[in-house]
Design goal:
With about 425 residues, the protein is of the alpha+beta class. It has helices spanning about 10-30, 35-50, 295, 310-330, 345-360, 375-380, 415-435; strands spanning about 60-70, 70-80, 85-90, 90-95, 100, 105-110, 115-120, 125-135, 140-150, 160-170, 180-190, 190-200, 200, 205-210, 215-220, 225-235, 235-245, 250-255, 280-285, 290, 300-305, 335-340, 365-370, 390-395, 400-405. The strands form three sheets. Strands 4-3-2-1-9-8-7-6-5 form a nine-stranded antiparallel beta sheet, with no helix packed on it. The chain has an eight-stranded antiparallel barrel with strand order 10-11-12-14-15-16-17-18. It has a seven-stranded mixed beta sheet with strand order 20-19-23-22-21-24-25, sandwiched between helices. The longest helix is centred in the first third of the chain and has 19 residues, at about 10-30.
Length: about 425
């Protein structure tokens, strides 16, 4: 009898037991053949079905997603528990609670936006995969690697963060594309957080590392992957680079200036006609053509939001408008969101907008304006001088007159700017309601 060395396991022992029972039962004990075969087949089935290799699981704890964009490796913090994954951008947390696993592979739709992450787990401490943006006509993916976080920021609990404001310029060498911004940062040890305020919005919750020679910050919110870096030269930031995903790269610089300011966002777009009235044609999500003119506005305070479901600043504004509507909707306030979406397919745009409105819990209906292009938005809203930003928000009084046109939105990532900004808008809506 040949003896074969077999690795000790439940399956090995059960198979050996099966062979021994088969030999002894049939040839030594003369058991009933049919009953015996039934018994040993059941034993073999038990061995096969109860010894399946359990699917791997990532270890719980702090991880880091490293997105690969050309020569860059952009780190984003991630925490994993037995039930959820959470992405961390400074004080922002994005929970991914609907991961679908198939063996060691996973797929998850990002909340609010028409994007996803998918990948494969190797062991319990290595994940590779890709982030995919489904809102575009062409395939848009960025690969990533996820590994346990080995080092944390070195911060000091005994000293307050150093608060810095930079007068920043994007595309400083191009007269056509040059634009102003405020870089607002807090540095504690080698950890830096903050954002950039521009005249069309902000870059949300940035986080990264600071040394004596350089800074680097990034964030990933599900629809945008941002990365900023620059060298420090005295009171200046030089040789700065801004990367948005793999499709956009821009130079920037900055000079320390605590008194730096941007233009008034209420002054950048204006109504062209003398009667201060707005008229535009859009589509309902059923595909029907809808005209909004003075008759649609008279007798109610109206807020027309020019937005895109792919735009995080727009999403921040939608959350704020939800609060305003919950307070003043019963007093006649109406909110009319008009979406300009990536891609040319109406059904795909409808799906993106409908899903986001459902997740945000917005009770008023959205409309479709066209593709996510400022020129297209300016064409639909031809009574405006120009649509410079998503979002752009038009406030209309009970007489049907345009009273304010606000470009952009300062979201919660801007801290005190967000508080002041939303307080002023809230007071203005209250004023219109009380007129």
């Amino acid at each position: 009898m040949c003896i074969i060395s077999i690795k000790a396991s439940k399956r090995s022992f059960l198979i050996i037991a099966f062979l021994l029972f088969y030999y002894c039962g049939l040839y030594t004990l003369n058991l009933n053949y049919t009953l015996y075969i039934t018994f040993v087949l059941g034993l073999l089935q038990f061995a096969c079905t109860n010894n399946k290799t359990a699917p791997l699981k990532p270890r719980t704890g702090n991880w880091e997603i490293e997105f690969s964009v050309a020569e860059l490796h952009i780190p984003i913090k991630l925490s994993i528990t037995d039930t959820t994954w959470k992405i961390h951008n400074a004080s922002e947390t994005i929970e991914l609670d609907s991961l679908v696993w198939n063996a060691n592979k996973f797929y998850v739709k990002m909340p609010l936006f028409n994007t996803s992450m998918s990948g494969e787990l190797f062991g319990d401490s290595l994940i590779t995969g890709q982030w995919t943006d489904h809102s575009r006509d062409s395939i848009y993916t960025i690969p990533f690697t996820i590994k346990p976080l080995k080092s944390n920021y070195q911060t000091s609990a005994s000293t307050a963060p150093v608060h810095l404001v930079y007068d920043a310029t994007f595309s400083p060498n191009s007269e056509e594309d040059k634009s102003k911004a405020l870089g607002i940062f807090d540095i504690n040890g080698n950890r830096i957080t903050g954002t950039f305020l521009t005249e069309t919005g902000d870059y949300r919750f940035l986080e990264g590392y600071a040394t004596d020679q350089s800074i680097s910050l990034g964030c990933f919110d599900g629809t945008h992957l941002f990365y900023f870096c620059a060298n420090i030269a005295g009171d200046s930031l030089k040789e700065g680079k801004f990367h948005s995903g793999k499709h956009w790269t821009e130079e920037w610089c900055g000079a320390l200036n605590p008194n730096a300011k941007l233009r008034d966002p209420d002054s950048l777009t204006f109504i062209k006609n003398d009667n201060n009235e707005l008229k535009f044609r859009v589509r309902s999500l059923n595909g029907d053509s809808v005209i909004f003119d003075k008759n649609a506005f008279v007798g109610r305070v109206s807020i027309v939001q020019i937005f895109g479901s792919w735009c995080p600043n727009c999403t921040d504004e939608s959350r704020f408008l939800k609060e305003i509507y919950s307070q003043y909707g019963s007093q006649g306030l109406q909110i009319i969101p008009v979406a300009f979406e990536r891609g040319s397919d109406f059904e795909s745009a409808k799906h993106s907008v409908t899903r986001q409105f459902h997740e945000l819990g917005l009770s008023y209906p959205p409309y479709f304006g066209g593709i996510s292009n400022k020129g297209a938005a300016s064409h639909v809203f031809s009574d405006l001088s120009k649509v410079l930003s998503f979002p752009t928000t038009v406030f209309i009084d009970k007489q049907g007159k345009v009273r304010k046109i606000h470009t952009g939105f300062y979201g919660p990532g801007t801290g005190e700017y967000y508080m002041r900004h939303t307080e002023m808008l809230h007071m203005f809506v209250k004023q219109l309601i009380n007129e």
